[in-house]
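=== RUN LOG ===
request id: a7f3
mode: sequence -> structure
chains: 1
length: 1330
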Amino acid sequence: QLSRASVRPAIASPAHARGGEMDRDSALDAMAVEGGRLADDDTASVGSRTSAYSQRSSVSALSYATAASHSTVASVALSQGPLSGRYSASMYGGGAGAASFREEPHEALGSLHRLEVCNFKSYKGRQVIGPFKRFSCIIGPNGAGKSNVVDAVSFVMGVRASGMRGEQLRDLVYRVEGEPENTGRSAYVTMVFVKPDETELRFKRSISASGASVYSINERNMAWEEYDRELAALQLRVKAQNFLVLQGDVEAIATKSPTELTTYIEHIAGSADLQDEYTETRRLKELAEENAIYNHNRQKGINAEKRQYKEQKKEAEEFKKLQNEQKSQRTEHVVWQLYHIDQELGKALEEADDVREELKVKTTQRDEVTGELKKMKASQAKLYKESLRIIRKIKEHSASIEAMNPEVISVQEKIAFLQNKVSAGNSKHAQLTAKIEEQQQQIATLERDLRGVNAAQRELDESSAMDVERSSRTELAASQSRDYSMRKEEAAKKTAADRSKCDVLLRQHEIDTQALGSLEARAQELEDRTVPIRNLISQLREREERTVQLIGEAEAQMLAAETTLRDHERLMEQERANRDELDAELQSVLEKLAVAKAERQDTDREERFAETTSHLVKMFPGVRGRISDLVKCTQKQYEVAVSVAIGHNMDAIVTEDEKTAIECVKYLKEQRLGRATFLPLDTIRVTPLDESLRLLDSVKLVFDLVEYDKSLRKAIQYVCGNSLVCESMEDAVQLAFGEHRRKVITKNGSVITKSGVITAGGKSSLQSRVSRVDNEEFERLKQTREKLRDQLMELNRRLRNVASQQQQSSEVEGLKARLKFATMDLTLTRKKLESGRNELKRIEEAQGRLRPEQEALRETLVNQRTEIEVLQSRIHRSEDAIFAEFCRNLGVENIREYEEKHLKELQRRAERSLEISALKAKLENQLEYEKSRNLRSRLEQLEGDIREHSEALEQVREEEAQLKERVQGIRQEIAKLEKDRAGKKEAFDDKEVRVVEFKKRQQTLAGEIGDLQKQITYHEGQVEQLHARRHALYMDAKLEGISIPFTHGSLEDVSEADSQDNEDSMEVEDSSQEMQEVYEREENLHVDFSGVPRKLRAMSATEQKAQHQQFLQDINKRQLELEKMDPNMKAAAHFKNVQARFKKTAEACSAARQDALTADRAFKEVAEKRSRLFMDAFDRISGAIDHVYKELTASADHPGGTAYLSVDNHDEPYLGGVKFTAMPANKRFRDMEQLSGGEKTVAALALLLSVQRYKPSPFCVLDEIDAALDKANVARVTRYLKQHCDQLQFIVISLNNRFFEHSDSLIGIMVDVDEQCSKPLTLDLSAFPE
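=== RESULT ===
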């Protein structure tokens, strides 16, 4: 690696300038850098083709310099300092054990001289890389752009952009970071190749501004194919890339699988070019062989077919003979059956006529009884309706009374409430009047007392000053008085300031004392006001508690009453629910009776068909039954849909096999039992279920909705098909008319067929078949109807008793009204209580505001007294000094003692003045409070409330009287209606007894008529069966060509009914009218029975059955013979056609064999050529690889390791694998995967160099192949490259000094920071001896 080194100029010595030689090591040691524009210590590392030197790094010291006037040698400073050793020639001589293998040297094929790049990846503008010697090394710091040289070689050789770390060619154009992708620049790389005759070839590949690639040689543009051929002529194969070993390729080659190694050798040998031709000729060979086999088998098949038709021709002739014999037997059988049908038909018609006459008489009797019964029921229904009308009126009147009860209770509660209000108002009025009189007396007393206090205050103020002055003057002598005055003036002057302050404080103290007295009087007044308020609050609390207790009791009573009422209502509701249930049950019974009556009159066809099916099941073991009896719907909600989906197949009969079905059909024809559809399980064709339909949402297959025996799956699948069931008509329409049309049925039975026909409605055949009732069930239903009617009448009588419920409801309403008024009173009490509490709160807040003022005044008075005492003490000391002598003369201790004696009166007067002031303030506050109490307005408001309550009380009393009068009238009307209803009930019961008698008579006649109808139905069924049997015989004879002898008419007069079975209909039935017309026409046909033998005419039923079986056995025997033959009636014509086809097939078979031989020869030629090319390359590479590997691993102690190649497939080696085995020196054998990285690299190099010996290229670029090699292996590889560089030019990219110390030239790649690009530097080392 190159490291950062200081940049210093290197000046060549004069000896060097004069041309003196320098040895190689000295030149490397003296290498320095001059002339390049490089940063001091930092350079930029060149990034990939898309980055523009975004990250700066230190510059390794690689540069060049030229002397100004001398041929100075450019040099490179290497990372590890000056080279410390020399390599002697002995390093390359090999050891004593070196292999003696020598190969004839290849003739030089030319060499790569230089590369000219322009705007390619990290190279800006036009730059020349080279010239390259026989052994050149490319060096430079990481990121400088060394690998971009390899990319330039790959690019000019035509490698795709993806092989050069790019997605498109435009990514290879030089671009600085921050520039847009499309910079408009073009780029090119020119490879200057020198041929052995010293002529130059300029291979050039350009990238236009639009991103297109252009190839040219010696400035002549050409297509890629021609360009590639020119390179191949110089042994440069782009596909094999034998001229290039990239980073990581060495180890990849060593770890190739045998198959990958085979592919690699094929590309080297050129046999890969034959792969497409090989594949094509092999395919053609296989096709030709298959065609030959096909024609051969076809010829064999036609030959067998020819023999078969010859045998069939003979069999057809025998078949025609037997058919004629069978027809005569069937004619005899049909005529015999027609004879006996004619006899039985006449007998059945006579018996039916006799029963009809008897039925006519019974029907007349039943009609008479029915008429009388209808009249009785009409009269009874009229009475019942009148009773119901009366009951409704009674209910309406009772409901009216019940509705008025709450109103009556409400009026009574209002009366009690208003009476309480008036009484309480009068009591409050008397109390308030007394309070007003007491207030007026109190105000007069307070005003009188206040006037007396004011007068006493004035008298005290006028007399106090004169009395004091007069008293002081009379007690002192004149001299003493003058002395006192002088001393007093002197003391006054001396203590003037203190006295002034003391007087101010005394006045303020007096004012504050008065203010404190006023505040205390106000506080006492507030305290006096709180007493009545607290008493009122206490009273309101007691009232609130009583009211709450009253409400609780009322709520408990109301809860109990409501519970009782709810229980009663629940009982009545249960009775009503029972009545509704009985009504519903009665309605259901009536509906069932109606259905039963309709079913009793239903057609006999289904009964006959069910009976016929039962006979078939008993007679034929293979008959399983009808579909309707064999399936069961899994979910009741889908019964209608399943019945509709199966449709007319619901009556289809399932049989085990076709033979049983045919026997059943013959039996039905013989017995004239009508038509039936049979489903033989062995021959029926079933449409496969579409499994994708089960994945649809909200859709179900009909097949999935039925239960059945698993052995019947084919039959059930046949009748259900892929029909679908949807929840709604919208889903059905969407699915039926979607991409694939399907038959869809909704849950209610609507059908949408594939043809688009929509049929709405349907019924469940599964339900209807089991819902029929017999006579016993019919009688039970009628008894249930009568029982339900009796229960309903009793229940209606109980429901009419509603008096207790009305009483309970009235009680609840009264409790609700009482609770309402108690709640109102509680609300009013709480409002008053809240008002009293608010008033008390305001007073307490006022007291709270007064307390701080009182405390502040008390504290101020204390401070004033303290200050006054201090001033007075100072004044007293001054006075004591001035009046000391005066006091001694008077015999007093101090002047104050004297003055106190004469000033006691003044003090008394002052105290009196304070008492008067306090009393005055108290009287004024009391007077103000009494005047503020406005009791007169409260009295006026109370008088208005009393008047309003009295007026409302009178109105409510009038309402109460009116309500009572209305209730009494309604009760009288109810009593009248109850009496009328009892009469109607008695008449209804009488009618009911007569109705029961008529019903019994009617039921007896109905039973007799039913029996007669069954007999008629039986005889008519016999006639119908006989007609059907005869018609079936005629139709079979007509269809099967059986000849019947007629005396009148012919089989041309026999035809089917015009009605056709509708595929989408719900049921399939014979049209009785059209069939009767057919039967009438057949009555005109007369068969000639003269041919019937006498012994076959008079026969019992048993004998007829035995004879019938004999006929069938004879016919079936003949039929079995015919069925066994199964001839081909067209065998003669087919035989002729087969002969012609056999001739054509023989000719085609011969041509196909010839084509197969030709294709086989072509394939073998290509395979031999491919194998020859591959083995030629393999043998030569395998022969050289061991020698090359020994050279690369030889040392002084060991001749080297062993390496060889082996193939898996010796016949066609390119189809198998090639195994590469290498065993390093002094080591045991191991697989390639277990070798170390260096050992794998050496082995891979041995393989690559062996390939070069087989087909050498002019040059080989090795990109950092020494990554995994240690020093010893690097020395061996360097030695090998040096020894063989005269035959093959080596260009090595490496940072290992062992490589470039022995190279012929150094190509340095550096980063130009200012230009932001890579730049090459070249140093020719061939002039320097090693």
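=== NOTES ===
The longest helix spans residues 275-475.
The mean pLDDT is 76.
=== END ===
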